[in-house]
Design brief:
The chain is built from three helices and 14 strands. The chain has about 280 residues and is mainly β. The protein has one domain. The chain is globular and about 60 Å long. The chain starts with 9 loop residues before the first helix and ends with a strand.
C-alpha cells in the first residue's frame, strides 16, 4: 500500500489554474490597449488605465471556477506593459488558500502582434490580504518599468527537473488571430516550483513543473492538450531533500480531464503507465 498512493497534484493544479488566468488577463489587457474590440464582459476606462472584467457562467475564467469581478491596472508603453490583477479571492487547490491577485506582471507583444509573452514568479503572487494597494502602480517609475520588462529576457527552462525548483512560470499566448475572443487563445506554460504551499498526505511538500503545457479553452476545458507535467513530493524539514515520490505526466488532447503517468516513483510507483484525473476545474 505504501507504493499505491495516487500522485498528489495540488501544486500542479495551482500552476495550471493561475497560468491560465494570467494568460486570459494578458490577452484582455493587450486588446484593450491596442484599441481592439473587447468582449461584452470587459470594460476599459482609458483615463484611469483600469480594465474591469465580469466572469460568470456565460463568460467564465478559463480553467477556474471563479465567478465575480477582476480588475486590471496596467501601464502600457509601445508594444508592452506591466499589469497588476485583482481577484475577489480566487480559491486555489490544496487547502483554504485564496489568491488575491498578482502585482506588476510584465507582458509584451511579439513582432507579428498575434503572440504575447508574459511571466510571473512567486514574489508577484498576493495571497490573503493586500488588495487595498494592489492596483496602485504609482511606484512603478520608468527604471522599475524597464526592470520589470527585462524579466522577459530570461531563458525558459527545457529540463522539467530544473523547472521544478525555479518558482517562475513563463506564459506565452497565441491569440489565434481573434483578439476579441480570449477563449480560443493557445496558452503555453513552462516553469514550476510552488505557488502556495501544498502538502501531501504524509506531510511532504509538493512541487510541480510544466514544460510546454498547452491550453486552449475552446478546444478542451478540462485538461492541457499537449506538453508535460511533473509533481514531486519532498519530505518537509529543509535540506537535504528526501524524495518521497514523483510522477512525470504527459498531457493529451482527448479532453477527458486526464493525464497519462509516463513514470512514477516512490509512494506513487503503482501509477506507472496509468491515467490520473486532473480536476481542473
Amino acid at each position: 500500500m505504501d507504493y499505491k498512493q495516487e500522485p498528489e497534484i495540488g501544486s500542479l493544479q495551482q500552476g495550471l489554474k493561475i497560468s491560465a488566468a494570467i494568460g486570459y488577463c494578458a490577452s484582455v489587457a493587450t486588446s484593450a490597449f491596442r484599441n481592439e474590440p473587447l468582449p461584452d464582459n470587459v470594460t476599459f476606462n482609458k483615463s484611469s488605465g483600469l480594465i474591469h472584467i465580469t466572469t460568470d457562467e456565460t463568460y467564465p475564467l478559463p480553467f477556474n471556477n471563479y465567478a465575480g469581478d477582476i480588475v486590471i491596472a496596467c501601464l502600457w508603453n509601445g508594444n508592452g506593459g506591466v499589469m497588476s490583477v485583482l481577484f475577489g479571492s480566487l480559491d486555489l487547490p490544496g487547502g483554504k488558500i485564496k489568491l488575491t491577485g498578482l502585482y506588476t506582471v510584465p507582458l509584451i507583444e511579439s513582432d507579428d502582434e498575434n503572440n504575447i509573452q508574459t511571466l510571473f514568479a512567486t514574489q508577484d503572487i498576493v495571497l490573503g490580504n493586500g488588495e487595498d494597494t494592489l492596483l496602485d502602480l504609482s511606484n512603478v517609475t520608468l527604471p522599475v518599468f524597464s526592470s520589470e520588462m527585462a524579466r522577459l529576457n530570461a531563458a525558459e527552462p527545457s529540463d522539467i527537473f530544473v523547472a521544478v525548483k525555479q518558482n517562475v512560470w513563463f506564459v506565452n499566448i497565441n491569440r489565434n488571430s481573434t483578439p476579441s475572443d480570449m477563449y480560443d487563445d493557445y496558452i503555453t506554460v513552462t516553469g514550476g516550483g510552488q505557488i502556495a504551499e501544498a502538502r501531501g498526505s504524509s506531510g511532504g511538500i509538493i512541487y510541480h513543473a510544466l514544460i510546454d503545457a498547452k491550453l486552449n479553452y475552446s478546444i478542451c476545458d478540462r485538461n492541457p492538450i499537449s506538453g508535460n507535467g511533473l509533481t514531486q513530493n519532498f519530505k518537509a524539514g529543509g535540506t537535504p531533500y528526501i524524495d518521497l515520490g514523483n510522477s512525470l505526466l504527459r498531457f493529451h488532447n482527448n479532453c477527458d480531464g486526464m493525464a497519462h503517468v509516463e513514470l512514477s516513483t516512490g509512494k506513487y510507483l503503482w501509477y506507472n503507465g496509468r491515467d490520473i484525473y486532473l480536476d481542473i476545474p
